[in-house]
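To assess whether ligand presence alters the predicted conformation, the chain was also submitted together with glutathione. Input:
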Amino acid sequence: MKLYWFDTVNPRKACAVAKYLQSPVEFVHVDLGRGAHRRPEYLALNPNGKVPTLTDGTRTLWEANAIMCHLAARADSDLWPQDDRQIEVIRWLSWDLAHFYRSGSSLYFEYIIKPRFGLGDTDLAAVKQATKEWQRFAAILDGHLHDRRWLVGNGLTVADFAVASVLPYAERASIPLDEFPNVRRWHDRLNELDAWREPYPALSEAA
Ligand SMILES: N[C@@H](CCC(=O)N[C@@H](CS)C(=O)NCC(=O)O)C(=O)O
C-alpha cells in the first residue's frame, strides 16, 4: 500500500491510523507547497487534487475517513467495528464533516494555512462566525463525552481520530478547546497515543 500524505489536517487522520495500526504502507510525500497535488500523475490517482490518497493493489481510495476505515478493516481492527457500533461510528463521521470539522477547519485555514501558504490576511468575520459554530457543536460533543472515554462504545474507533482531527491545532488556530473540559480530557487521552501526537512519517522514510 502507498499512502500519499502531507503534514496537514486530513492526511493527519490517515497517517495517525496507519501508525497506530502499524499498517504496511509506504508513505509518499505530496508537497502541496510545490503543487505536487496538481501534477497529472497525482490527479490520475485523485482527481480532487487533494491529500490523502491510498493505493492498495489495484484499488485507489481517496477521502481520509474511507482510508482510515480501509486500513482498520484490513487489519481486522475494532477501530472500524463490525457490529452495531459501526452505525454510531458513521453517525460521528457524518456529524464531523457536516458540522464540527467545518467550523474547526475554517479556523485552521484562517490561522494556519493562510500564513503558511501566503494566502492573505485573517478574515475576522469568518473567524467570528466559525468560532460561534464551533462552540455550538463542541457543546454537543462535550455533553456526549461527559461519562465516556471514547466516542463510541468503550474503545477507540476511527470516529475519535476523525472528530479530533483539528484539535491538535487548537492553540495555534484559536479554537476555544478549554471551554469544553470533557472534549479537552478526551483529546488529552488521544495525546497519550504516540500515533496521535506524532502521526507523520519522518521525511526520510517517505518517498
Ligand atoms: N475530504 C477530503 C479533504 C482533503 C483535503 O482537503 N486535503 C487538503 C489538505 S488537508 C488538500 O489536499 N488541499 C489541497 C488543495 O485543496 O489544493 C478528505 O477528507 O480526504
